[in-house]
Specification:
Layout lengths: L1 E7 L2 E6 L3 E5 L14 E7 L2 E7 H5 L11 E7 L2 E7 L1 E7 L5 E2 L13 E7 L2 E6 L7 H15 L1
Parallel strand pairs: 2-11, 5-7
Antiparallel strand pairs: 1-2, 1-8, 3-6, 4-5, 6-7, 9-10, 10-11
C-alpha cells in the first residue's frame, strides 16, 4: 500500500495513493462568498469545477496563509472531484504491515473518525486520512450544492 505524505502545518499526514487523482503545484482558486472557512474556493481543473478544501481548517492546523506556496491533492469523494490544499507533498512511501499502528483510543472520537491509522515512517508518526470520511454529511452537502450552483 502506497501513501502520499503531505505536510499540513508542522505535521505529516498520509493519503492512500489509490484515492489520489493528481497533485497540482499551482491552482487558481476563486473564493466563494458566504461559504464555510473550510472551503477555500473553487478551481477549474481541465474543465471540471473542483472545490478546494483547506486541510489546515479541517484539521485545526496553523496556516501560513501564503497560498502561492501551497500544493493541491486532487481526490474523488463519491462522484465529486475535490482538491485538498496542503503546504507540500513530502514523498510517496510504500508501506509494510509492520509500520501500521492502530489509532490510539484517546484520539478516536466522532470528530476524528477520518483518521484510519497511524504510520511509523522513519521514526516519525504520520496520521493517515480516509478521504471518504474526512467531510461530514453537511460539508459534503455544501460542496455538492456549491458545485451544482456553479455548473448550472
Amino acid at each position: 500500500m502506497k501513501q502520499v505524505l503531505c505536510k499540513v502545518g508542522n505535521s505529516l499526514f498520509g493519503i492512500d495513493i489509490e484515492k489520489v487523482q493528481g497533485i497540482e503545484k499551482k491552482m487558481d482558486v476563486t473564493p466563494v462568498p458566504n461559504t464555510p472557512k473550510l472551503i477555500r474556493g473553487i478551481s477549474n481543473l481541465r474543465g471540471s469545477v473542483v472545490p478546494i478544501i483547506n486541510l489546515h481548517e479541517k484539521l485545526g492546523m496553523v496556516n501560513n496563509e501564503n497560498d502561492s506556496e501551497k500544493t493541491y491533492i486532487i481526490t474523488r469523494i463519491g462522484e465529486l472531484l475535490v482538491g485538498f490544499m496542503v503546504d507540500s507533498v513530502a514523498e510517496i512511501v510504500e508501506l509494510n504491515d509492520g509500520s501500521l499502528i492502530d489509532v490510539p483510543q484517546i484520539v478516536k472520537d466522532e470528530g476524528t473518525s477520518y483518521i484510519q491509522f497511524v504510520l511509523n515512517v522513519n521514526k516519525q508518526l504520520v496520521l493517515v486520512l480516509d478521504v471518504d470520511e474526512i467531510l461530514d454529511e453537511s460539508e459534503r452537502t455544501n460542496l455538492n450544492k456549491l458545485v451544482d450552483d456553479v455548473t448550472n
